[in-house]
Design brief:
Distance between the termini of chain B: 30 Å
Strand content of chain B: under 5%
Number of helices of chain A: 12
Order of helices and strands of chain B: HHHHHHEEHHHHHHH
Helix content of chain A: over 70%
Distance between the termini of chain A: 45 Å
Oligomer: heterodimer
Largest interface: A-B, 42 and 41 residues
Structural class of chain A: mainly alpha
CATH architecture of chain A: Orthogonal Bundle
CATH topology of chain A: ABC transporter involved in vitamin B12 uptake, BtuC
């Protein structure tokens, strides 16, 4: 039983950052933006989360700073890709490397360390104990006592699905990706919708970053997003942006993450660390098989 | 061509200006900093030779990305291909014993084989299962990263070392160094000439370029797109692998953790700034190498940490790529105005 709950908990904490970033990616996906900058936004968020939490001694300020930091990255993306109409792919790659360089530079400038920064002054995001439910055996252990951002993530899935499919904004968002000229000619500037989708993506990636540096662990290390932004991009592409699909895929990735930790007893950690990336390849394989059947 | 040079220079100048503002904002002296930066990378025999040596992996991975992007495949697997190339060269260098004039080419070929094998995996996934190479190469990068880390931690681990690294490779496999000049530059120049010739002078290169510009037109013209796709992936993988082999054979002569550094991603950026042009890749590669090489001296002389260069690089890329279109419009306007004035006069 212990292994089982451990696995589930590992799955949830592994899935949370990927799910948050992928939800952000879903908004830009529907808006028709080839957004590969989730990695950079997440990394920026993770750094500013530590910065805010360290200086204000408050995890709430940490989350707020993470969102601001991630929005800064999104702002750069908006300025280049939407305003100046630079190629989105190029902007994304440059932004990811900018985020890596800038966070490494600031790590050195502000905290005077190389590699990683941790301190007892960084306040982690607390876990939420739900009364009554935490008394239930097994189930209580899973539902209660998770990081606050985990509950925020569940809410985010519901809200995203509602926003994208049930509101006027969602309709315009999908129209911006589906047929931008007709949206423009109906009097709604598609550029404005794109900017909003990127801002939402920035906020969600900021939360993902905050979870990485204040929830998953309580420190910031160089390049700590470690390809999670790319995995979330894969998740978005796999399910064509559907928030429910994204939630499912992220849980599967989270499961492989937890499984990797479990397998560490039996094989070298380098192989277990590969598991989520191999899982992405396997998922892509099934996606392409399905796609072929659909066409046939 | 002229226009590209102008836009490159203007872009670099603007980026350096932005960098200067960031420095001023933090209370550093930009003139002194840039002075130190270029003093330690360009002026003098030793700095220049170091810049040249360091440019090799940047230019080769840049060429790999340029050729791939210009021909269609979005091969972003250079980091993984570089590591696999270096690993293959390491294994060869540890277990083969040949005279130097044979061992060096064999190791270089092995490194190319390693890179091509790794990009070949992505190419096959695309060919058989229609899986997008854009994501598969990225995932393969992470897998290669962990795989090489495992290889240098267990099977070919140096028993006497405290951190994961392999023993030194056979001395006969070391690239010769003449004074300050490292011969890895020669290999890079040969590779550049070869790929330039193939890309611009041979039928194969013509087919790649046409496919990259308009794959439908290429297919209707009777070009075998699938076959070319695999070839391009293999060739670009081999280029990135060669970069890894050269890093190993010119530098530490052993595979240690973090060997790949950020070479490959910098190479991708270089290809992007150069708009996938081969000569542009060469020139921007030299520029990036110059500021990276000078960054150590800059850190030594001034208080600016060398990580600042990473920021400067990304700013340069964004400014040049974003400014390219606007500069074109501006130049076109100026030329048109001048022509109009001449006509009226």
């Amino acid at each position: 039983m212990n292994i089982f709950t451990g696995l589930i908990k590992g799955m949830i904490s592994g899935a949370t950052p990927i799910l948050l970033a992928a939800l952000g990616g879903a908004f830009t996906f529907y808006a028709g933006i080839f957004n590969i900058a989730m990695e950079g936004m997440m990394l920026g968020g993770a750094f500013f989360a530590v910065l805010g939490s360290y200086y204000f001694n408050s995890w709430l300020m940490g989350i707020l700073c993470a969102i601001l930091g991630s929005l800064l990255m999104a702002g750069i993306f908006i300025f280049f890709a939407v305003t100046l109409k630079t190629d989105e792919f190029v902007t994304g790659i440059a932004l990811n490397l900018f985020a890596l360089g800038a966070t490494t530079y600031m790590l050195r400038q502000i905290f005077n360390v190389k590699g990683a920064f941790s301190s007892p002054d960084i306040v982690p995001i607390p876990r939420l104990q739900i009364p009554l439910i935490n008394k239930i055996p097994v189930l209580g252990e899973i539902i209660s006592g998770q990081n606050i951002l985990v509950y925020v993530t569940i809410l985010a899935v519901l809200i995203s699905a509602f926003f994208i499919f049930k509101t006027r904004f969602g309709l315009r968002l999908r129209a911006a990706g589906y047929n931008a000229p007709s949206l423009d000619s109906s009097g709604v500037p598609s550029a404005k919708i794109r900017i909003w989708s990127l801002i939402i993506c920035g906020i969600l990636c900021g939360l993902a970053g905050a979870f990485l540096s204040l929830g998953y662990v309580t420190l910031f290390s160089e390049n700590m997003s470690a390809g999670r932004g790319w995995i979330s991009l894969a998740a978005v592409i796999l399910v064509n942006g559907n928030p429910w699909g994204i939630a499912l895929i992220s849980l599967i990735f989270g499961f492989t993450d937890g499984l990797g930790l479990l397998l560490q007893q039996y094989m070298p950690s380098q192989f277990t660390s590969m598991v989520p990336y191999v899982a992405t390849l396997v998922a892509l394989y099934f996606y392409s098989i399905q796609e072929r059947k659909r066409k046939a | 061509m002229q226009r590209k040079i102008i836009s490159g220079f203007v872009g670099i100048l603007i980026a350096l200006l932005i960098g200067a503002f960031i420095m001023l904002f933090q209370g550093y002296d930009p003139i002194e900093t840039y002075g130190a930066l270029f003093n330690y990378s360009l002026f003098g025999l030793y700095p220049l030779a170091t810049t040249l040596r360091n440019s090799v992996p940047l230019i080769l991975t840049g060429l790999s990305a340029s050729v791939a992007f210009a021909s269609g495949p979005v091969n972003l697997g250079q980091p993984g291909q570089l590591l696999m190339g270096a690993l293959f060269a390491t294994v060869g260098g540890l277990y083969l014993d040949l005279p130097a004039f044979l061992l060096i080419p064999v190791l270089l070929l092995l490194s190319m084989l390693g890179g091509a094998l790794w990009s070949g995996v992505a190419a096959m996934l695309r060919k058989w299962f229609n899986m997008d190479e854009f994501i598969t190469t990225l995932m393969l990068n992470m897998i290669a990263d962990f795989f090489t880390y495992w290889a240098i931690s267990y099977p070919i681990f140096d028993q006497t070392a405290y951190s994961p690294m392999t023993p030194q490779i056979n001395q006969k496999g070391w690239l010769p160094i003449w004074g300050e000049f490292n011969s890895n530059v020669i290999v890079m120049v040969l590779a550049f000439i070869a790929i330039y010739f193939v890309f611009n002078r041979l039928t194969a290169g013509y087919e790649w370029r046409i496919t990259g510009q308009n794959s439908l037109f290429a297919r209707l013209g009777g070009i075998k797109i699938d076959k070319n796709y695999v070839t391009v992936m293999l060739v670009t993988g081999a280029l990135a692998g060669l970069a890894g082999g050269l890093v190993l054979m010119a530098g530490p002569h052993r595979f240690l953790k973090g060997l790949g550094a950020n070479y490959a991603w910098d190479g991708v950026m270089i290809a992007v700034v150069a708009n996938n042009g081969l000569f542009g890749t060469l020139l921007y590669g030299l520029f990036f190498s110059a500021i990276q090489t000078g960054s150590l001296g800059m850190e030594l002389i001034t208080a600016v940490p060398k990580e600042f260069i990473q920021v400067l690089q990304a700013v340069t890329v964004l400014v040049i790529v974003a400014g390219r279109g606007y500069l074109d419009i501006f130049l076109d306007k100026t030329i048109a105005k001048r022509k109009a004035r001449e006509r009226s006069a």
